[in-house]
Amino acid sequence: MGMAVNSVTNLGRSGVYDWMVQRVSAYLLALYTIFLLGFMLTTDLDYEAWAGLFSQTWFRIFSLGTLIALGGHAWVGLWTVSTDYIKATLPRFLFQAICGTVMFVYVVWGIQILWGL
Amino acid sequence: MFVGVAFLLYGLDLSLSGEEGFARVNELLDSFLAKLIIWGILSALLYHLVAGIKHLLMDMGIGEELKSGRLAAKLTIVISVILIVLAGVWVWQ
C-alpha cells in the first residue's frame, strides 16, 4: 500500500496540487511577460503611455494577478530547491521563512504601486 | 530572479510616481551598473521563459523522446542566447 508523504511547508500540501499551481502560474507569467515586453518594444514609450497602461483597471488586475502568481510560482520553485539542497531543518526553515516574507512584501508593495494608496 | 523583482518593483514605483519619477528611471538606466542589473534580470527571465515554454510543450507530449528531447534542449540554449544578446542590444542601444 502506498502512502503519500506530505510536508507542512509545501504550498498545496500535495505534489499534484503544487504541480498544477506551477503550470497555471507559468502560463500567466509567460503571458504577462510577453505582453509587457511587446508593449515596451512597440510603443514610443513616454510617461503618458506608461502611466496610461497602468491606469487601466484591467491591466492593474492583470498585474496584481501576475504578482500573486509570481508569489505562488516562486514558493513552489524555491520550496523544491530548498527541500532538495538544504538538509538541516533550521536553515531550511529560515530560508523558507525569509522567502515567504519577501513574497508577502512584494505583493503588498505591488498593490500599493498599482492602486497608489 | 526573486531578488531582481525588488529592482523591478522599485523601478515601477518610481516610474509611475509622475513625470519626474519616470525621467529619473530613464536617468538611472543611463548608468552602467543599472544597465548591467537590468540586463542580468532580463537574461535570467528570458532563459527561464524559454526553458519554461519547453516544459509546457513537454506537458503536451512534445519533445519527450530522447532525440526530440535533446533537440529541444539545444534549441532552448540557442534561442535563449539569441534573445539575451538582443536584450543586451536593447539595453545598451
From TrEMBL, chain B:
GO-annotated cellular components: membrane
GO annotation (BP), single: tricarboxylic acid cycle
GO molecular function: electron transfer activity; metal ion binding
Transmembrane feature ranges: 33-50, 71-92
The name this protein goes by in its record: Succinate dehydrogenase cytochrome b556 subunit
Residues given in the record as heme binding sites: 48
Family statement: Belongs to the cytochrome b560 family.
Pfam families the record matches: Sdh_cyt
Keyword Transmembrane helix found: yes
Co-factor(s): heme
Signal peptide extent: none
Function: Membrane-anchoring subunit of succinate dehydrogenase (SDH).
Species, as recorded: Marinobacter segnicrescens
Details of cofactor binding: The heme is bound between the two transmembrane subunits.
